[in-house]
Structures are given as C-alpha cells and as structure tokens.
Amino acid sequence: MVSKLAALERWVNDAAALTRPATIHWCDGSEAEYQSLIRQMLQTGDLVELNQQTHPGCYLHRSNPADVARVEHLTFVCHSQQQDSGPNNHWMAPAEAHAKIDALFDGCMAGRTMYVIPYCMGPIDSPLARCGVEITDSPYVVANMRIMTRMGAAAQERIEREGHFVKGLHSIGELDPERRFIMHFPEELTIKSYGSGYGGNALLGKKCHALRIASNQARDEGWMAEHMLIVGIENPAGKTHYVAAAFPSACGKTNLAMLIPPEGYRRDGWKVWTIGDDICWMRPGADGRLYAINPEAGFFGVAPGTSTSTNSNALKSISSNTIFTNVAVTADNQPWWEGLPGTPVTDWQGRPYDPANGPAAHPNSRFTVSAKQCPTWSDKAEDAQGVPLSAIMFGGRRPSLLPLVMEARDWTHGVLMGAAMGSETTAAATGAVGVLRRDSMAMKPFCGYHYGDYFAHWLSFDQPAAKLPKVFHVNWFRKGSDGKFLWPGFGDNLRVLEWMIGRVEGALGGLETPIGILPADGELRLDGTKVDPTRIDELLDVDVAAWQEELAAIGTYLDSFEPRLPERLRQEQQRVAAALVGGTERTRRAATAP
Ligand code: O2Y
Ligand code: MN
User: Fold this and answer.
1) pLDDT at 27 over 50
2) Cβ 124 vs Cβ 158: under 8 Å
3) Rounded average pLDDT over 530-554
4) Which domains does the chain have, with CATH numbers?
5) How do 181-185 and 75-77 pair as beta strands?
6) Residues framing ligand 1 (Cβ under 6 A)
7) How confident is the model at residue 534 (pLDDT cuts 50, 70, 90)?
8) CA-CA-CA-CA dihedral for 216, 222, 228, 231, to nearest 10
C-alpha cells in the first residue's frame, strides 16, 4: 500500500532515502499482519512464547539491558526559540538537533524492513482524536503500536482525508546509550527517536505524540493534553460521574483506573468504569463542561506489584493476548514478577534466577494489552464526543503535610494545587529518600512547552460560560507518627471519590480551611475499613506552621517560571499564604477559616 496523500508519500520516501531500508512495509493493522509479525519475532528471538495453555496469545520480549526506561536526559523539545521550551525541558536548536539525529539515521535501516504505521490517537471518528504516522525498523514497536493505538487502514484514510499528521521517525539503531536521542519539533509536528526500542522512547504515539507534541497542538487549538487517567464512578442510583486524575509516574494511576469497590460498596451497587489509565485529552463542549477522551487503545502497565490484591482487573486483562516486556518466567513458562505467588526460574535477562542479581522482573517491566480486555472497560471510551468530567484530581506521594483529600475553592486555586503538586522520592526510585520533587500536573517530563505558558493555558479555561469540573488534591501516602501509612489505598480510595461526588452534587458541606475544603466530621464513609477512625484526624490534619513553609516553597518554585509565570497564579499563591497567617494550631478544626 502507498498513500494518496502526496505529503505522506514524500515524507516516507525522504525517510527511506535517509535510512536506506531493504524493504518498506505499510501497515494495515490487520490481525493477519499482527500474527505474521509475531511469527517473525518468534523466529528471530525478539519474542519468546509463554505458556499457551495458561496464557494464550502471550509473549515475552527481553529488551537490551541498557534500554529499560524512558531517558529524560536524552529527550529534547526543540522549539526555534529556547524560551518556548521552558526550564522544564532540555532544548537544542532545531537545525542542530536535526543534523545530530539525521547523522545517526543515515543508512541505519540497511538490511532491515522499514514499517510505516498510520495511527489514530482517540476513537477513529472523534473530533478530539488526532493522527500520526510512525516509521520504525522495529517489529516489536509495530506490534505494541497495534495494541496501544487505532492503527492501520482506517487511520490512514483519516490522515488522507485531513491532509495532516504528526510525523514520527524511529530506529532502534545499535541500542547504544551513547547514540540515543528522543527529539521533538513541535513547530513541525515531528518526532525523531534513535537508539532505544523501549516504551515511551519508541512507541511514539504515547508520551512523544499524545503528550509532548499534543500539548502544543492543544494550546494552539484550545484543548488540553494531560497525563491523567479517566475513570467513571457509578453510584447505586445508576448515575456515573467521570473523574480525571493526574499522578506522577508510578503512583498507582492504573490501579485507580481499574479500582475494585470495597465489599460494602459493591453490595450497595457502586461500580467503577475504566476509560483510560495514563493520558487524557479534554476540551470544552457546547454546554460548557469539559469532555475527555483517552487517546490510547491499550495499557502499557508496570508489571511488578500487579496482583489479585492490588489490581485483579489488570491481572484478568493480561491473562491472554498480551506482550510482556522484561518480566521473569516460572518453571512452567508463565510470566512472573514480584508481588505474584510462585517462584521464578528465569530472570528478566533470561538468566537462571539468582536473588543476588536483584529482582527477577525488572522494576520497569511492562505488559501491553488491549484495553478491551479489561473487565471494567467502559463502552463510553469509544464515544466520539468523550465523557463529561465532574472532577479533576491531582495527587502525589507526600508522607506528611498533604491531607488525604482537599478541594480547591475555585478553578484558579485548583490550578495552583496542580502546579504545586509533587512527590517525595522513595529509596527504590533514586536512592535519595524524602526529597520533594515538584511535578506540576504530573507533566514535568511531558509538557512540550514552557510551564509558565502551560499554567496560563490552564487558567484560560475559566470562562464565564464554563461549567468546569471541581478540582481536588489527594494524598494516599500520608504516614502517621509511627511511620506507617494512615490510609489503606486501593479499593478504599472509592471512599474519597464518594466524598468528592457528594461535593460535586452539593450533598456534602465540607469544612473550609485556608488550604481548601476538607471532609467535615463524619462525611467520609468508613464502615468496613480497617482504618482506625481516631486516625482520620491525623490524615486530615492541617499543620498551619508547616503549610506556611510549604506556601513559601511553592512561591520559590513558581519563581523559576518567571518571566512567564501568570500573575494570577502568583496572586493565588499569595492569597493562600495570607490566609494561613496568624494560624498556629495543628488541628484541622483550628485551621478552619473564620
Ligand atoms: O519507561 C517507559 O518507557 C515507560 S513510562 C510510562 C509507561 C506507561 C505509562 N506511563 C509511563 C510514565 O512514565 O508516565
Ligand atoms: Mn504515564
């Protein structure tokens, strides 16, 4: 197949002239094509067949051990003016970046097949969806893109009709970390990625297109491209509220998106519907509400820790037709990772398992699976118009200070909460424990332009006719004076969502404090939890003196985005700081606004 669109045909020819592949294959996205790629990868050893009795259609890919995660230090956003990329991105002048990466691409596909992958991010008939084409020499990338996007003939037809698309050129190159770059050219709607075959570096529809490039398109076109899950909460009366939530990577987005209600809630008829676990595109509808789609069609989820107790929906989703990357294997050839019962015999690198070598599965090992296999998958995920949002949640991993939940008093306050969010590092992540990393809206690695302009874009949605979602901040990770987590998390998080819905519906009064609105006594439903009700005060405690310090630290953080920091955000930070002045007591009652 070739294209009716001259611009597409020309770009593919130019890429072929540069990379000089042996053959070019235009992907049609069919099942036959997918199966043929799987057969080919089984022959080359790119894939290993897993136990087809227990895991039909499941395969294991072992990546190069030096290629196991996104590489932020090699990821560049190349606006023509450095200021437009902001202090939140690595920058290189576009001409220099093209020259540097094109030198790597020169002849790199010799003897290989070049795959041309037309794809659509979002339901194929959705006005919110956007299309792209990825060129790659990795059949593993093609197979993953087929699961993660609407890929093939239908996407190509839409591209030919619309006449424009995001261009993504990718080669695994030599998989040499010294010859690796992930370059974005927002003004050209172009991505170039060389030297990695892994996840976010190589599946260009995901972080590169759907966040870094799309955040630029969204700003120009009046919508938002966010690092958020989308979940539907159906109450016993049958009303579903949709909530989008931004958490930094590895803070449980997939678990929340597939939450299983506690037993009492299940009995009462509460249901949870999954729309997306990682990315959310949203825009105002004619009625003034924000409507959201998940641009992806699958999950690229972290395997370790996924178990029947943490996320049985994910576990059910990945029992068939799944590509596993860098997991361990049991004696009877089933995929295995830390958190699952049983024992591994082979580690993620294919070596006999030896605990002295570290975890059996790589901590960033992944499953790629179609979202349709999730037991809680919502048919609304295919709705071309998207789902109307009742609430937006921000959250981070904060062992102290941040209460379990607080509501912003208005949109501007909500934008401040999102801008200020962050997580304290854990030992597993970096070795440096307890360091607070701010990660505004969980977009630090993904916002494709200056954070100051991004905050202004968020604020711009606050229009007179807008019916914006309420904004909340949650913290599942607060610890008590004994160093133990105060909140059980997982399914019990529905209790917090129920409170939010009560606030959205106007059924709950809440408690006003200078930092936001918190649950009033008795408003959080706790029947059936293991949480000691006396510890709820600790979970919702507002330490006024510590909050004064926090507001000062937020102010210093916001300074780093001058001169592009919106004045309105600065004033909001000052408003909250001023509201805290004079407070000295530790209890949330004492912190209650007069
Ligand atoms: O390391 C990678 O390439 C994967 S990163 C990733 C994958 C799925 C969803 N989110 C993320 C992330 O880092 O936010
Ligand atoms: Mn993510």
Assistant:
1) yes
2) yes
3) 92
4) 6-48+68-222 (3.40.449.10), 229-296+381-587 (3.90.228.20), 298-373 (2.170.8.10)
5) parallel
6) 69-70, 198-201, 249, 278, 300, 364
7) confident
8) -150
374, HSE (Cβ side, Cα atoms, 13 Å): 31
Contact 117, 134 (CB under 8 A): yes
Separation CA 134–CA 261 (nearest Å)? 39
Per DSSP, what are the bridge partners of residue 2?
none
Whether the predicted pLDDT of 585 surpasses 70: no
User: What is the per-residue pLDDT across 154-195, written as a single tens digit (0 to 9) for each?
Assistant: 999 999 999 999 999 999 999 999 999 999 999 999 999 999
Mutate-to-test residue for ligand 1 from 278, 324, 368, highest number of ligand atoms within 8 A of CB: 278
- How many other CB atoms sit within 10 Å of the CB of residue 463? 11
Q: Given this model, what pLDDT does residue 584 score?
A: 54
Closest among 510, 521, 527, 443 to 472, alpha carbons compared:
510
**C-alpha torsion sign, points 392, 228, 91, 121:** negative
- 394 - beta bridge partners? 246, 473
User: How many angstroms does the Cα of residue 366 sit away from the middle of ligand 1?
Assistant: 9
CA separation for the pair 155, 300 (Å, rounded): 21
